[in-house]
Amino acid sequence: MSGEAPAASGLYELCRSRFPRDPDATVLELEDGRAYSYRDLERTSARYARLFAELGVRKGDRVAVQVDKSPEAVFVYFASLRSGAIYLPLNPAYTPAELSYFLADAEPRVIVCRPESESAVGAVARTLPSPHLLTLGSDGDGSLVIRSTRLATDFPSPELTAGDLAAILYTSGTTGRSKGAMLSHGNLASNALALCALWDFQREDVLLHVLPIFHAHGLFVALHTTLLAGARMLFLPRFEVGAVIRLLPRATVLMGVPTFYTRLLSHPELAAERCAGMRLFISGSAPLLAETHRRFRERTGHAILERYGMTETLMNTSNPLDGERLAGSVGLPLPGVEIRVADEQGHVLGAGEVGVLEVRGPNVFPGYWRMPAKTQSEFRADGFFVTGDVGRIDERGYVHIVGRAKELIISGGLNVYPKEIETAIDRLDGVMESAVVGIPHPDFGEAVIAVVKRHAGRDDVTEETVLRGARADLAAYKAPKRVFFADELPRNAMGKVQKNLLQERYRTIFG
To answer: How far apart, in whole angstroms, are the C-alpha atoms of residue 73 and residue 463?
Structure first.
């Protein structure tokens, strides 16, 4: 349903065509100093691909992976690409009950899990049509490594086109059955090439990789841009503020979620001198507070570059590398990507008007796995994908996200967008951040409530002061009916506030 860029016989072959001339150049370096070269990547992924082939994996088969972050896990991903298989990354936090849904839906030929999960995952695997189960530990141990050791270090990949599927990523499923977003080699290649050029990735760059690799941000955006530039990564198992502070002088780029930046701001050693070698801080996966943007620039001299993407479309927009990075905006459409704002009937709206964002371009997925009706319902007749994100495009073309259509609160018959209220509350003195949700109300249908995290030591911020401040900026029907306080807002692995948990926590307060 979208045009696709050539993938050079597959995404891996495209990346390989831009590897450094010296195959012993480092691609991954761990915190303990261990390093892996481009030669290691090439040879190890070839051996893993050969093992998959021995187990019957053919072009179009699925390879499901639920393991901890490690260099070997990266090599498994590229082995899947080289095999022509469809890669299915799964959050290690998923329970066996959750895992059973994804595996039953995708029907993988191979499942790779942690050694300690072998028994539980094996029980799920036995309910499926004869998949092969392999293990991979965070220290490079497990049956996958052992069984591939004897295999040759080259692999003849099948012929691949831009339209061939490379991965399936399942949506979070907080509002119903999880959907498998199918992503093609062309989707991934076109997006990676655009970002590599837009953010000016060079061979000399060093990416501080602290994101998980079961999500598009850490798996696709981070890995692909690095490999296309022939650059290298400082590869950490997770974000840990002390380690990041320590490694910043050795890096040039950091990709993160807003939570990373608020935690860095809380560290006393964050300063301009420590960031002197950095050229780019990127934020995504969740909205970045304008206050965080301002404070980070004051402390470091760097304006965080915010961008906007989603599982189904990869990256859609980015603030410019050279040019104004607007706090509160996710920037301009990527080259080749079209974005418009429309109402619920699909009528295109003008500059500044608020509606649902729709996207068309080579980055947009072909559809949901085994859900043709759902796929059809999410696309307009002219090929635009209806994102479900509510936003506006200003006169200069910058995109501003207002919220999610599914988060819309209808209170007393009037539409209320949580993002607008959160912005008003977040501006109040003593407020660090807020989350606004709608909960059942006997009179209004839904009532607006706010959950607020205060700055340390600011107990003077009370329900009364927040309500008074919000009412000064908002129409009466938009202002919260109640305000609650929390030490932390519940978040998922990518830093997004889990509003469904807040709705569940407070849903009975009005009876």
So the answer is: 47
Q: 439-460, pLDDT tens digit by residue?
A: 888 777 788 999 999 999 999 9
Q: Using the 3D structure, point to which of 134, 153, 186 is the last residue of a domain.
A: 186
Average pLDDT over residues 219-226: 98
| CATH number, position 465 | 3.30.300.30
Distance CA 465, CA 483 (A): 10
Alpha helix (H) residue ranges in 132-253: 143-148, 185-198, 216, 223-229, 241-247
Q: What is the mean pLDDT of the chain?
A: 93
The answer to the question of residue 345 being in a domain is no
Question: Does 38 map to a domain?
Answer: yes
**440 DSSP β-pair partners:** 446
Burial code (b: 16+ CB inside 10 Å, e: under 16) for 244-274 equals bbebbeebbbbbbbbbbbbbbbeeeebeeeb
CB atoms within 10 A of CB 506: 17
**What stretch of H or E contains 294?**
helix 290-300
Question: Which residue, chain included where needed, has tokens 């059955």?
Answer: 177
pLDDT digits (tens, 9 = 90+) for 366-403: 999 999 999 999 999 999 999 999 999 999 999 999 88
The owner of tokens 């909960």 is 439
Domain ends where: 130, 161, 186? 186
What's the domain range around 477?
Answer: 408-506
Q: Is residue 164 part of a domain?
A: yes
Residue 252 lies in a domain: no
pLDDT digits (tens, 9 = 90+) for 131-146: 999 999 999 999 999 9
Q: Per-residue pLDDT for 5 more than 60?
A: no
CA distance 473 to 287: 21
β-bridge pairing 165-170 and 232-235: unpaired
Number of structural domains (the chain) is: 2
Sole residue written with tokens 């050539």 = 6
User: What CATH number corresponds to the domain at position 95?
Assistant: 3.40.50.12780
Q: How many helices (H) and strands (E) does the chain have?
A: 16, 25
The percent of the chain in helix, strand and coil, each rounded to the nearest 5, is 30, 25, 45
Distance CA 391, CA 303 (A): 22
